[in-house]
Amino acid sequence: MTMTAPQVLVDTRASWHRLAEHVLAAGQFAAAGTIRLRPHPGGFATTVGLGDRQLAVVGDQLLVIRGNSVRSEPLTPLARAAHFAGVELGLRGSYPPATPAEPDAPLPVDLTAARRLAGWFALGEAALRRFAAELGRPMEPVLWPEHLDLGVVLDAVNYGCSPGDAAMPEPYLYVGPHEGPPSRHAFWNTPCGATAAASRIGDEADAAVFFLQGRVQVLRDRSRT
């Protein structure tokens, strides 16, 4: 049975998601043509940045980083956050955003929930790197703003780490073949593939094992078709 995430976790995730789409990804896409984000200690950040600066969300703070200089401001409504970051509010020209760019909506963040989400991203990143390295296919995990999930793609299969969503509020790992579940094997427990709730995952090694199980299962299933 899917566990219900505490409301503070859902609210914190929603606030981070809006910032990811409408401030960090929006600014970076306008400056450099990419929406790719990355985990950052305590939160997440831009990858190539915006000219001479990087943007990051850490806990309940928005950071503007220039070299060794860091300015921070508590998370505020999107319009003020965008102004502080020096970007135009709202993601444009990439994909239809999954969250609304409401300029005056509050951005509640619970620090305990934020630490849990940041820790989940850190575990997921380490596990994805380990999984890819064990296959001899090193890859850079990407934090995609559309779903605020961290993942890699290998042979038309998405492997990733989600902070939760409407269908599964608890953070989870996933293996998603592009064609959908390739068999009726019990490993494939969702319409999109397979998931493992955070409550089932103890550490990076557990997460890497789940990804490897998915890799083995999808290859076995595809070989039978």
What is the fold's blueprint, element by element?
Blueprint: H1 7-32, E1 37-40, E2 43-46, E3 54-58, E4 61-66, E5 69-74, H2 78-85, H3 111-134, E6 142-144, E7 149-153, E8 157-162, E9 172-177, E10 194-197, H4 204-223
Antiparallel strand pairs: 1-2, 2-3, 3-4, 4-5, 6-7, 7-8, 8-9, 9-10
What does the model show?
A 5-stranded antiparallel β-sheet has the order 1-2-3-4-5. The protein is built from 4 helices and 10 strands. It has 2 domains: 7-85, no CATH class; 111-223. By secondary structure, it is of the alpha+beta class. The chain has helices at 7-32, 78-85, 111-134, 204-223; strands at 37-40, 43-46, 54-58, 61-66, 69-74, 142-144, 149-153, 157-162, 172-177, 194-197. It is globular. Strand 6 (142-144) and strand 7 form a beta hairpin. The mean pLDDT is 95.
Number of DSSP E strands: 10
Rounded to the nearest angstrom, the distance between the terminal CA atoms is 31 Å
Major β-sheet strand ordering: 1-2-3-4-5
Helix run count: 4
Mean pLDDT: 95
Beta-strand percent range: 15-25%
Identify the notable features of this structure and list them briefly.
225 residues; alpha+beta; 2 domains; five-stranded antiparallel β-sheet; 10 strands; globular
In short:
The chain is an alpha+beta fold and 225 residues long.
